[in-house]
């Protein structure tokens, strides 16, 4: 297999479990062990057919994205990126035609899995305001780190937030494979969902890191509601995108069930005009997000994840 960031290859890894712990249409995440280091890692495999030149370019892009552009020896990287998923390296395995991205293993689940289990369970399985404050504080801290390094996440959605059983939140899906998809003509299989695109991205004008703030607001609102907030025309993709751009703020529909401070924060994140949205730094000063600094909120979140997902399942 081809070596990539950090000189890794498939031969350096051993499977922990025969089945993927998560799988999508063109990708799967496996729990594995880096044999030499003895570290338990998560490896995201993406099915891609690439020639050598594309491979090298891709591995460089993935490594840059996942390392947030900082060399692995940079102490800044370890201390400030505490809520951004840790990255070991990437490789391309030619025989199986797969890109492998080696990351920290996070026991628990992603926010989509958590909120879906919560919606089924109801009652004591409910995500509380304290849980949302903790998720937001950690997610905004991660975005603030990325934005301060002039990086835009571009693919923020509920499944991009991993939550472990101690209530630690990590931002993942950093490698924006969209650019690659355009160049190799494999767009359909790799392109992530546009349902979380801010209006300016849908319209096609240039966008800034404020698009991540929109996606954060939509993600938290979705987890609160238990389903995707823009429901109106979901049977027709184009109509759905028009609906996102034109319809009133989706917070209105559920305002009676939202804590006042959370409602205010989500309204700001979901402003149609990018210039009207707060920055990650602004959000870190809001009362609701600051509540999430309290370790009790994190402990509560961890307990809920254990309860909803059954601790030993992943």
What can you tell me about this protein's structure?
This is mitogen-activated protein kinase kinase. Belongs to the protein kinase superfamily. STE Ser/Thr protein kinase family. MAP kinase kinase subfamily. Residues 15-289 form the Protein kinase domain. InterPro entries: Kinase-like_dom_sf (IPR011009), Prot_kinase_dom (IPR000719). This protein has 314 residues and is an alpha+beta fold. The protein has 2 domains: 5-104, Phosphorylase Kinase, domain 1; 108-313, Transferase(Phosphotransferase) domain 1 (Transferase(Phosphotransferase), domain 1), CATH 1.10.510.10. It is built from 13 helices and 9 strands. Helix 8 packs across helix 10 (260-269). The longest helix is centred in the middle third of the chain and has 20 residues, at 129-148. It is globular and about 55 Å long. Mean pLDDT is 86; it is low at 1-5 and 177-192.
């Amino acid at each position: 297999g081809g070596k990539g960031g950090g000189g890794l290859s498939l031969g350096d890894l051993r499977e922990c479990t025969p089945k993927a712990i998560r799988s999508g249409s063109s990708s799967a995440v496996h729990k594995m062990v880096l044999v030499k280091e003895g570290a338990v890692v998560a490896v995201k495999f993406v099915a891609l057919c690439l020639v050598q030149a594309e491979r090298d370019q891709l591995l460089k892009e993935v490594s840059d994205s996942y390392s947030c552009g900082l060399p692995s020896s940079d102490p800044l990287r370890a201390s400030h990126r505490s809520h951004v998923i840790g990255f070991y390296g990437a490789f391309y395995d030619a025989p199986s035609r797969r890109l492998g991205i080696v990351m920290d293993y996070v026991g628990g689940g992603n926010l989509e899995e958590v909120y879906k289990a919560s919606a089924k369970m109801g009652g004591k399985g409910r995500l509380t305001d304290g849980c949302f404050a903790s998720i937001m504080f950690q997610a905004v801290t991660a975005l603030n780190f990325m934005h301060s390094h002039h990086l835009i996440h571009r693919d923020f959605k509920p499944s991009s937030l991993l939550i472990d059983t101690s209530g630690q939140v990590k931002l993942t899906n950093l490698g924006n494979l969209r650019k690659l998809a355009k160049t190799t003509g494999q767009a359909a299989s790799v392109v992530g969902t546009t349902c979380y695109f801010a209006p300016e991205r849908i319209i096609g004008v240039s966008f800034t890191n404020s698009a991540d703030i929109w996606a954060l607001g939509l993600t938290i609102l979705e987890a609160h509601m238990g389903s995707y907030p823009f429901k109106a025309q979901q049977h027709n993709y184009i109509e759905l995108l028009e609906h996102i751009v034109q319809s009133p703020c989706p917070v209105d529909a559920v305002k009676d069930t939202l804590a006042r401070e959370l409602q205010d924060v989500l309204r700001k994140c979901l402003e149609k005009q990018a210039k009207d949205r707060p920055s990650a730094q602004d959000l870190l000063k809001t009362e609701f997000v600051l509540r999430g600094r309290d370790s009790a909120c994190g402990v509560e979140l961890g307990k809920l994840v254990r309860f909803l997902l059954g601790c030993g399942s992943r």
